[in-house]
Amino acid sequence: VKRGCGLCVGMGLSFPAASASLSLSIRSKHRCLFTTISVSVSGVHVYQWMVGCEWDDDAKEVKGYYQDGYDGEDFIAFDLKTKTWIAPTPQALISRQKLDNEKAGNTQRKQYLTEICVDWLKKYVNYGSSSLLRKEPPSVSLLQKTPSSPVSCHATGFYPHRAAMLWRKDGEDLYEGVDQGEILPNHDGTFQMSVDLSSVKPEDRGKYECVFQLLGVKDIVIKLDKSVIKTNEEKSPPLIAIIIAIIIAAVAVLALVIAAVGFFIYRKKSGEKPNHRRRLFLLF
């Protein structure tokens, strides 16, 4: 608790049906928190205590939190600027009056949130900078199984996982006809995700674009174009390639026949009886 920057403590409190009331007091050895809750109900209840700080290095701004909650609702909170307490419910008024009178304790709370907590937060950021500040842009591609199936915008290899990907039409974010996939881990510690787009008319393809967003990395935008879509369909070879292949094959056969005929004539003129087996071997 002493060094926790962003600490949330939750406790389940069980009260028997015959209990009249319970007074709960929590105080750390450094007077970080003191509050009293009186209850007279039975069943299981949850008391929550959150202490933490936020540090904005760019704006040089610090925010601190001392908050108590009960059964999922705010009970009392510390105002860092005024060093007073805020009671959003009538049940917390007695606690607020008691805590407001702790002038020295409130000064210590502000010092902890604005100095001690921030110092430790900076140390933790420095220790984990290799992972906390790591940024890996993804490889983004458009995939489609068949011309009638949805177009999938797939991004893989990005880090961290706090990323977003969406489709736009004419510059506007698109929500209808879009299937947002989950962010999944890769074997190397990076992540992947995809978002599918259905019902795209061929004449409207130029109006769509896939956008990948990752904090600290420039947005990656890919226009929906048939030439960049990867598909599972086998592409038939161009007609000119087929014609060239036929011509090459015909020339090769013709050259082989001419060579065989020339060899046969040469043997005949030289008086050697043609060897039918050799001729057949040459022809085939």
Keywords:
284 residues; alpha+beta; Murine Class I Major Histocompatibility Complex, H2-DB, Chain A, domain 1; Immunoglobulin-like; 6-stranded mixed β-sheet; 5-stranded antiparallel β-sheet; 5 helices; disordered N terminus; disordered C terminus; MHC_I/II-like_Ag-recog; transmembrane
Biggest pleated-sheet summary: 6 strands, mixed
Morphology call: elongated
CATH architecture of the largest domain: 2-Layer Sandwich
Q: What name is given to the CATH topology of the largest domain?
A: Murine Class I Major Histocompatibility Complex, H2-DB, Chain A, domain 1
Give an overview of the whole structure:
By secondary structure, this protein is of the alpha+beta class. It has two domains: 7-132, Murine Class I Major Histocompatibility Complex, H2-DB, Chain A, domain 1 (2-Layer Sandwich); 147-231, Immunoglobulins (Immunoglobulin-like, Sandwich), CATH 2.60.40.10. The protein is built from five helices and 17 strands. The protein has helices at 93-100, 103-127, 129-132, 239-269, 276-283; strands at residues 7-15, 22-27, 34-39, 43-56, 61-70, 73-79, 84-86, 139-144, 151-158, 163-169, 172-174, 178-180, 184-185, 191-197, 208-214, 217-223, 229-231. The strands form four sheets. Strands 8, 9, 12, 13, 14 and 17 form a six-stranded mixed β-sheet that branches. A five-stranded antiparallel β-sheet has the order 1-4-5-6-7, covered by helices on one side. The longest helix is centred in the C-terminal third of the chain and has 31 residues, at 239-269. The radius of gyration is 38 Å and the shape is elongated.
